[in-house]
């Protein structure tokens, strides 16, 4: 399916080609008696719902036995939804195998690194590499595709659900066989594998492929390259399952788009979504806010990265929560305004569908305390009224549908393999958190009122004036060359501690750190000096470092020392450096400064790159700006990052939603942005 064609889920009604922001939820009618279904459709219409995901955990209902099928209930559901003008994102239902299958074939159950079987009783109890599971799953997918290929409610296919959420790492014999095949394809022969894995260490040299195992429980630290390759393999194995289901669906319905819901959020790291994005017709994501001082920043970071995984094209927010979730230590309800703000912040970064888990809050099961569009209290509730209000807001934002994210002048480079490798065992510190460092830089951009994109490490950098590459630990030579060339041609690179340390085989770059970036940065580090938990060191620019310090030696005569240590083990040595490189520059930050400390470091680097915020100075840090556009118009999403009203003065544009008139200020009108509020302005496109 051409990825530039507007997906069916963007349309406001069957047969309508005018796009709109889709709205809906996971819908699980099998949890409810038949008489509830008619009420569901009526309430969906009241709330403005246009699309629902159906059948996600329905395998046991669709196939009660090996040769027994029951589609009548699903026929009824799809017919009811179509009659109500609601499109269906139909799931393949393969996320959780039914009891009859696991009883007959316990060999499909995953195995942990310690050899324990993951038993049925929850969900996702299947091996991604099990040929038995694959055969049964594809049989189900085929039956669904044959039956519903021509159903008028069908707008998209939903492969499995949250692939890898609970079963990304399987250490079974099936996995061992598949891992060996993957390694053969990667390395070709055992000599290349032995070199890549450094098996001369600890007498690990392999002489036959069947000697190789996944990194199961070992007496000490497992081989680090074996661990990294197993992470690569595990992500690829899930992607292979995605492709297998997708190909069945495309055979029967070549014009119906296929997706699966990513989980770009928090510490969900096992799936390399930069690789997966090309496997789907449109990118979908699930996101749940985690409490903490950077909760909203993290939501924006994840939505931003998702939008860039999608190449700037519209994507589908498949799941988020109307209020509380059920799986955090303390599950707080959302405050007034948060439901709409969280939803619209995803739209700001490119989502053209806003969906929740789930439509009706479950009365039984492990997620009965997870919020929904229709809560236990029913439609006569503040929550459902908020849901209905959001439906009207999204309807008002129909002009935004189909527009693309407008790129920023700055970017943060995000690299899954550095995330995986930098946090492995037997490293200088176990306290390092790759994603947290990237998020801290993103928070610094937000605090300074400067838009920054979060892009995968393979993304083109042309058009960016400044790129931050935090903890770029795994640095293959081609990427180092690309960054160097980009900087010398006018880009401004910022990188940090524990970057440029190893190549793609997790072999240390020799000659000093940061490996192939030494010459570009004009520095050399001979030895790491991590800080103990709670230990800090002061910089002469007022900053405080934690987690890490480097013994930085300046090797280039043209290097400027932007900050030095005043306390700690490196007192008197450089802490932050910058070197001109061709028409650009390269800067190095040798410690963790955190979200609070980074703005002071980032501000002069932005000045040197000629980057300033697009909002009036009084709004920077208080209001996040995200920009979408199509043709000669732009849509400015202005998101209140505070819990206080903010007066927006001096901004021209037609308010599409979120406007509340304020007192005129200066030469133009003013709008009041409510606490946690979002204002969307339609404006002429700016020259870029």
* CATH topology title of the largest domain: TIM Barrel
Number of E-type strands: 27
Rg measurement, Å:
26 Å
Q: How can the largest sheet be summarized?
A: 9 strands, parallel
CATH superfamily of the largest domain, please? Glycosidases
Named CATH architecture of the largest domain: Alpha-Beta Barrel
How many structural domains in the coordinates? 3
Helix percentage range:
25-40%
Our measurement of the CA-to-CA distance between the termini, rounded to an integer number of angstroms, reads 31 Å
Shape, per Cα inertia axes:
globular
Entry summary:
The protein is an alpha/beta fold.
Overview of the structural elements:
The chain is an alpha/beta fold. It has three domains: 8-110 and 120-166 and 238-403, Alpha-Beta Barrel (TIM Barrel); 410-609, Class I glutamine amidotransferase (GATase) domain (Rossmann fold, 3-Layer(aba) Sandwich); 620-684, Immunoglobulin-like, CATH 2.60.40.1180. Helices cover 30% and strands 19% of the residues. The strands form six sheets. The protein has a nine-stranded parallel beta sheet with strand order 5-4-3-2-1-9-8-7-6. The chain has a seven-stranded mixed beta sheet with strand order 12-11-13-14-21-20-19, sandwiched between helices. α11 (338-348) links the parallel β8 (315-319) and β9 (351-356). α5 packs parallel to α8 (224-252), α6 packs across α8 and α14 (434-448) packs across α17. The two termini are 31 Å apart. The model is unreliable at 1-6 and 663-667 (pLDDT under 50).
């Amino acid at each position: 399916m051409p990825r530039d064609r507007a997906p069916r889920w963007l349309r406001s009604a069957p047969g309508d080609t005018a796009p709109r922001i889709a709205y809906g939820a996971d819908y699980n009618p099998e949890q409810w008696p038949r008489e509830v279904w008619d009420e569901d459709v009526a309430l969906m219409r009241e709330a403005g719902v246009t699309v629902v995901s159906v059948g996600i955990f329905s395998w046991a209902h669709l196939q009660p036995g090996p040769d027994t099928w029951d589609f009548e209930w699903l026929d009824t559901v799809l017919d009811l939804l179509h009659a109500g003008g609601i499109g269906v994102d139909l799931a393949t239902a393969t996320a959780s195998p039914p009891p009859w299958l696991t009883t007959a074939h316990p060999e499909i159950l995953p195995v942990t690194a310690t050899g324990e079987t993951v038993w049925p009783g929850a969900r996702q109890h299947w091996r991604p590499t099990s040929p038995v599971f694959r055969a049964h799953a594809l049989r189900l997918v085929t039956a669904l595709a044959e039956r519903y290929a021509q159903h008028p409610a069908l707008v998209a296919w939903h492969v499995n659900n949250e692939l890898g959420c609970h079963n990304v790492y399987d250490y079974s014999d099936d996995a061992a066989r598949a891992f060996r095949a993957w390694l053969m394809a990667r390395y070709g022969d055992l000599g290349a594998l032995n070199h890549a894995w450094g098996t001369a260490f600890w007498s690990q040299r392999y002489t036959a492929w069947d000697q190789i195992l996944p990194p199961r429980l070992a007496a000490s630290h497992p081989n680090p390259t074996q661990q990294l390759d197993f992470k690569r393999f595990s992500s690829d194995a899930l992607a292979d399952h995605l492709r297998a289901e997708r190909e069945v669906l495309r055979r029967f319905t070549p014009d119906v788009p296929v997706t699966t819901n990513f989980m770009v959020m928090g510490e969900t790291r096992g799936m390399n979504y930069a690789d997966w994005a090309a496997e789907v017709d449109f990118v979908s994501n699930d996101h749940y806010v985690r409490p903490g001082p950077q909760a909203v920043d993290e939501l924006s970071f994840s939505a931003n990265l998702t939008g860039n995984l999608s190449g700037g094209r519209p994507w589908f927010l498949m799941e988020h929560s109307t209020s509380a979730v059920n799986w955090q230590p303390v599950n707080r309800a959302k405050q007034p305004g948060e439901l709409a703000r969280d939803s619209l912040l995803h739209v700001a970064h490119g989502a053209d569908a806003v969906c929740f888990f789930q439509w009706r809050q479950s009365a039984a099961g492990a997620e009965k305390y997870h919020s929904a569009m229709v809560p236990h209290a029913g439609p006569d509730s503040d929550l459902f009224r908020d849901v209905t209000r959001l439906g009207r807001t999204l309807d008002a934002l129909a002009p935004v549908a189909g527009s693309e994210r407008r790129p920023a002048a700055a970017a943060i480079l995000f690299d899954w393999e550095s995330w995986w490798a930098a946090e492995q065992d037997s490293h200088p510190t176990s306290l390092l958190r790759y994603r947290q460092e990237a998020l801290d830089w993103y928070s610094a951009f937000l605090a300074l009122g400067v838009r920054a994109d979060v892009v995968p490490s393979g993304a083109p950098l042309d058009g960016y004036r400044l790129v931050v590459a935090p903890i770029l630990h795994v640095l293959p030579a081609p990427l180092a060359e690309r960054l160097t060339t980009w900087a010398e041609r006018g880009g401004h690179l910022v990188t940090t501690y524990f970057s440029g340390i190893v190549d793609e085989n997790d072999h240390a770059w020799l000659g000093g750190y940061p490996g192939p970036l030494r010459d570009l940065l004009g520095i050399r580090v001979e030895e790491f000096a991590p800080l103990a938990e709670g230990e800090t060191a002061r910089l002469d620019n007022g900053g405080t470092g934690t987690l890490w310090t480097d013994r930085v030696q300046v090797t280039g005569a043209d290097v400027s020392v932007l900050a030095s240590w005043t306390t700690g083990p490196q007192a008197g040595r450089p802490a932050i450096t910058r070197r001109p490189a061709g028409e650009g520059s390269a800067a190095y930050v040798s410690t963790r400064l955190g979200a609070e400390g980074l703005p002071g470091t980032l501000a002069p680097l932005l000045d040197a790159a000629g980057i300033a915020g697009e909002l009036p100075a009084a709004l920077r840090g208080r209001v996040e700006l995200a920009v979408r556009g199509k043709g000669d118009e732009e849509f400015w999403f202005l998101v209140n990052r505070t819990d206080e009203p903010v007066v927006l003065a001096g901004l021209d544009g037609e308010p599409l939603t979120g406007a509340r008139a304020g007192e005129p200020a200066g030469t133009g009108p003013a709008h009041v942005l409510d606490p946690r509020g979002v204002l969307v302005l339609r404006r002429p496109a700016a020259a870029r």
